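INFO batch 0412 | record 1 of 1 | parsing
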Amino acid sequence: MNGAIIFNALLGKTKNDPLAIATAMQLTGLTDRGVRRVIKSLTANGHLIISPPTGGYYIADPKSEEVQVYIRRSRARVYTEMRMLKLLDGQAALAAFEELQVGLFKKVVA
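INFO prediction complete | emitting C-alpha coordinates
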Protein backbone atom coordinates (compact mmCIF):
# COMPACT_ATOMS: atom_id res chain seq x y z
CA MET A 1 0.00 0.00 0.00
CA ASN A 2 2.81 2.43 0.84
CA GLY A 3 4.38 1.61 -2.52
CA ALA A 4 1.19 2.70 -4.31
CA ILE A 5 0.98 5.88 -2.25
CA ILE A 6 4.56 6.85 -3.05
CA PHE A 7 4.24 5.82 -6.70
CA ASN A 8 1.13 7.97 -7.10
CA ALA A 9 2.90 10.89 -5.40
CA LEU A 10 5.78 10.51 -7.87
CA LEU A 11 3.51 10.88 -10.90
CA GLY A 12 4.08 14.28 -12.44
CA LYS A 13 7.20 14.96 -10.38
CA THR A 14 10.28 16.17 -12.25
CA LYS A 15 13.97 16.78 -11.73
CA ASN A 16 13.16 20.39 -10.86
CA ASP A 17 10.19 19.46 -8.66
CA PRO A 18 10.97 16.08 -7.06
CA LEU A 19 8.97 14.35 -4.35
CA ALA A 20 10.61 15.30 -1.07
CA ILE A 21 11.32 12.51 1.38
CA ALA A 22 9.57 14.54 4.09
CA THR A 23 6.43 14.64 1.94
CA ALA A 24 6.59 10.89 1.33
CA MET A 25 7.02 10.37 5.08
CA GLN A 26 3.93 12.48 5.80
CA LEU A 27 1.86 10.66 3.17
CA THR A 28 2.79 7.19 4.41
CA GLY A 29 3.73 7.54 8.05
CA LEU A 30 7.03 5.82 7.25
CA THR A 31 10.44 6.83 8.51
CA ASP A 32 13.11 8.19 6.19
CA ARG A 33 14.59 4.69 5.96
CA GLY A 34 11.15 3.21 5.27
CA VAL A 35 10.58 5.61 2.36
CA ARG A 36 13.98 4.75 0.93
CA ARG A 37 13.16 1.04 1.15
CA VAL A 38 9.88 1.58 -0.71
CA ILE A 39 11.70 3.60 -3.39
CA LYS A 40 14.29 0.82 -3.69
CA SER A 41 11.50 -1.75 -4.03
CA LEU A 42 9.73 0.30 -6.71
CA THR A 43 13.01 0.65 -8.60
CA ALA A 44 13.68 -3.08 -8.30
CA ASN A 45 10.23 -3.67 -9.82
CA GLY A 46 11.12 -1.72 -12.93
CA HIS A 47 10.20 1.88 -12.14
CA LEU A 48 12.96 4.28 -13.18
CA ILE A 49 13.09 6.44 -10.06
CA ILE A 50 15.97 8.87 -9.80
CA SER A 51 17.16 11.16 -7.04
CA PRO A 52 18.64 14.43 -8.29
CA PRO A 53 21.64 15.96 -6.47
CA THR A 54 19.26 18.37 -4.73
CA GLY A 55 17.36 15.46 -3.13
CA GLY A 56 13.92 13.94 -3.48
CA TYR A 57 12.73 11.52 -6.16
CA TYR A 58 11.01 11.52 -9.53
CA ILE A 59 10.22 9.04 -12.31
CA ALA A 60 12.59 9.68 -15.21
CA ASP A 61 12.20 9.18 -18.94
CA PRO A 62 14.47 6.23 -19.85
CA LYS A 63 15.69 8.04 -22.97
CA SER A 64 16.61 11.27 -21.20
CA GLU A 65 20.16 12.55 -20.85
CA GLU A 66 19.81 12.53 -17.06
CA VAL A 67 19.23 8.78 -17.11
CA GLN A 68 22.31 8.30 -19.27
CA VAL A 69 24.30 10.40 -16.77
CA TYR A 70 22.88 8.33 -13.91
CA ILE A 71 23.90 5.11 -15.68
CA ARG A 72 27.44 6.39 -16.27
CA ARG A 73 27.79 7.50 -12.64
CA SER A 74 26.40 4.20 -11.37
CA ARG A 75 28.81 2.22 -13.54
CA ALA A 76 31.71 4.33 -12.31
CA ARG A 77 30.73 3.58 -8.68
CA VAL A 78 30.43 -0.14 -9.44
CA TYR A 79 33.79 -0.22 -11.24
CA THR A 80 35.47 1.61 -8.36
CA GLU A 81 34.04 -0.85 -5.83
CA MET A 82 34.98 -3.86 -7.95
CA ARG A 83 38.55 -2.59 -8.40
CA MET A 84 38.79 -2.30 -4.62
CA LEU A 85 37.46 -5.83 -4.23
CA LYS A 86 39.97 -7.04 -6.79
CA LEU A 87 42.75 -5.63 -4.63
CA LEU A 88 41.28 -7.25 -1.54
CA ASP A 89 40.13 -10.55 -2.97
CA GLY A 90 42.20 -11.16 -6.07
CA GLN A 91 40.91 -13.33 -8.87
CA ALA A 92 37.47 -14.08 -7.39
CA ALA A 93 36.62 -10.40 -7.44
CA LEU A 94 37.96 -10.03 -10.98
CA ALA A 95 35.69 -12.84 -12.18
CA ALA A 96 32.71 -11.21 -10.42
CA PHE A 97 33.62 -7.88 -11.99
CA GLU A 98 33.72 -9.38 -15.48
CA GLU A 99 30.39 -11.13 -14.88
CA LEU A 100 28.87 -7.86 -13.69
CA GLN A 101 30.11 -6.03 -16.79
CA VAL A 102 28.42 -8.60 -19.03
CA GLY A 103 25.19 -8.34 -17.00
CA LEU A 104 25.17 -4.54 -17.15
CA PHE A 105 25.78 -4.61 -20.88
CA LYS A 106 22.90 -7.02 -21.42
CA LYS A 107 20.52 -4.80 -19.41
CA VAL A 108 21.49 -1.64 -21.28
CA VAL A 109 21.18 -3.34 -24.69
CA ALA A 110 17.83 -5.00 -23.84
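INFO post-check: The chain has two domains: 2-59, 65-109.
INFO record closed
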